[in-house]
Request: fold
Amino acid sequence: MNEYKNIEKIKPQTLLTLVREVLDQSNDFKYISGVQPFLMSFGKQKYYVYIKNISSAYFSDRDKTTRAQLPIKLEFDLIKSSPHNFIFLGYDGINDVFVCWNYHIAKKRLNIGKSVSFYSRTFFQSEVKEGEFIRRKLKNGDILVLFKRLNSIEFFEKIDTFFIPEKESNLSNVDDCGTFNYEEKFIQYLKLNKNLSDKTIKNYTNALRNRISEGLRKYFIPSLQTIYFIDNKIVLENLNNQLFQTKEYKELNLTGKNMYSSAFDNYINFINSLYNSSKEVINEAAENNEVYSKKGKLIKITNLDLLKQLEPYIETNRLLSAAQIVGNYYKDQYPKMELSDWINLVRKIN
Reply:
């Protein structure tokens, strides 16, 4: 069971006290006003800071996913129009760790929806050591930096080195969203599995390629070429929820009589069908073919999507993290597998 599901939430004033307990030790820090959010300065720079408890994301098939959420606040309208950076921190009370998401992006997401989610992983948070700053990038493009609360002073000393402004980033990089365009396969899926007219299919595909992809670029993933590159159902479900919470797309969907949200829902169903199909194939191979399994233990990873997900971990020799990802992916399919088995399995990846 994910221990973050039942974690007791820390009150806003206490969260402020926890970070000030460290920052007050620095002559560069000055508390100015507010609780959550609060205004502070560090050196010559002023920052609006907002701290929320990290909790489980409550995904049934991704138990290790955690999140912190931005609500709607009147103060956020003022912050959004201010010249000062907005720093959104998630606090993990279990590991005494802060997660900071790219503040160049976080500020743009203020007040675009009732609960705008920012995601992390339990294994990211648990691997943080005192004195270290861990930088990770999620499949939805979000960049996060994790650090111990006791290193809050060092974080603000180095804050400008952690995140690249959006205009300086490589906007052509879509590796984290996949490299295959699923538009044609999506059209085939609709024709074969849905009782829809050719006109409706055309409306759905055009809506996804044009207005919906434009919205995802505008609000969430500036580097995205088209939604048809995204093949992660969890990312899609999150984006679907957040896009239609924005005023612009809520009104657009209302005008279009829910055509845009229906198109998005059908694309998620399509990706989910691919996921289930590939999982059935992998399960069958693992159970019946000695090339992939032996005596109840997996001996080779053949899933291309999983191998792609593991690449950055293998390249940086983070074998434990890679092993945790593989173990979580296969869950109870191989009950005889122990952590040492997963690590050995990861070591075999070329």
Q: What stands out?
A: The mean pLDDT is 83. The first strand starts at residue 29 and ends at 34. Residues 3-168 form one domain.
